[in-house]
Amino acid sequence: MYAACHGVEQDYAEAARWFRKAADQGSAEGQHFLAEMHANGRGVKPDNAEAMRWYRKAADQGYAEAQLNLARVSAQSSEPKTSREYYDRGDADYDKGDYDHALADFDEAIRLDPKFDLPYNGRGDAYRAKGDFDRALADYNEAILHNPKGVGSCLNRGRMYFYRGMLAAARADFKQANELDPKNALSVLWLEIAERRDNVPGHL
């Protein structure tokens, strides 16, 4: 990895980019080192909330060093104060399956910043996990209202439409997600599934 190379000028921004790729693919080691970079401000801006989120993901996979660092950072951290911090804690609770606590944090994140789209998307995910599909759809609508370029929200709303048999609406959201991020494999896959279900010629 770039951050560990010796005899070569360290490029922390490039290292952060590769650690993020590994972290997004579920690598506990990648999640831990990305947390370290956020904690130390190397390659990314210093962000304790983001560091804790990635430490927690790695710790949940049993990565021992991340567990120690999570305990250390948690001991140094106070209660969330900003909308982003409440969102991050809610996101971590959601990942653990603690949907009620996640909902409470997403509610507070929205109260502090009603125009921040991610808490609406996160709260929609939590409602969907609890089987409250009407509220989930309403929150995905709010997320898209505040950020029409949010790929995740478009995909999530599209899936809600798809499972409700609203195939034209689902295809529109999946197409929008694909146009926003043509390299997003999920948007390509869901668009193809929706088009085939709706008897529209696919792209694959």
Characteristics of this structure?
single chain; 204 residues; Serine Threonine Protein Phosphatase 5, Tetratricopeptide repeat; 11 helices; disordered N terminus
CATH top level class name of the domain at 1-77: Mainly Alpha
Can you say what the CATH homologous superfamily of the domain at 1-77 is?
A: Tetratricopeptide repeat domain
Radius of gyration: 19 Å
H/E series, N to C? HHHHHHHHHHH
| Low-pLDDT regions | 1-9
Tell me the β content. under 5%
CATH topology (fold) name of the domain at 1-77: Serine Threonine Protein Phosphatase 5, Tetratricopeptide repeat
Number of strands: 0
The number of helical segments is 11
